[in-house]
Amino acid sequence: INTITQTIDPAEQIDWHSGFAGGLGLSFRKYREALHIEREYPLTKEPPRMDFLVIKKEKDTVIDNAVGRMFRKHNVIEYKNPNDSLNSDVVWKVIGYAGLYKGLGEHVNEIPAEELTISIFRNRCPRELFKEWKREGIEISHPYGGVYYVEGVVSLPLQIIVANELEEEEFLSLKMLMPGVKEKEIRKFLAYMRTLEKPGERRDAEAVLRVSVSANVEVYKRAGREDEMVNQVVWR
Question: Which of 36, 76, 83, 145 falls between 20 and 30 A from 67, CA-CA?
Fold first, then answer.
């Protein structure tokens, strides 16, 4: 009988960003018709491309979940995988992405600053960064589980999203990307996958599952090795 370990090359780099893009798509699936998600947005007419996402939201759409309540028309999204650090220089790099994105319009102020937000996703809370910011007088509020609003770094709305603190069920797919997922979370996510009927949603879920298995091989050997869906997605 095959095992999951036979399908995972330990030397292979995990495609965290593909998994995150899939998880983000699932997290906003009920707003899919009003959102346009773009990955690796080209900041100039020539390479390089930066590996971040832009969510474009229709003007009158209201997103009623913890992450999306801050969203405006243009939303720059950066994901830091479990191996990446998040410090003030990284934050300023993402702010730079947002500035370059704003300047891409064909005419002046085509992307108004008041229609632009920045979100940085990370699996765990960046406690050292928050301590540094508080020493500098930067205000950090915590309106929802896993969501931190930051005021005083840049005039644009800025939020830090801590995936393992998110409380709403619709963000389960983002939690699946981190090492250390529990067996009950795996079973819940596999049950959720079975409810998905649209091809785009299935592709998103499969991208999440591939990353989740790669980051949690041992627990999947216990919780998912006999699951036919895991076999089809991971071994095919």
Answer: 83
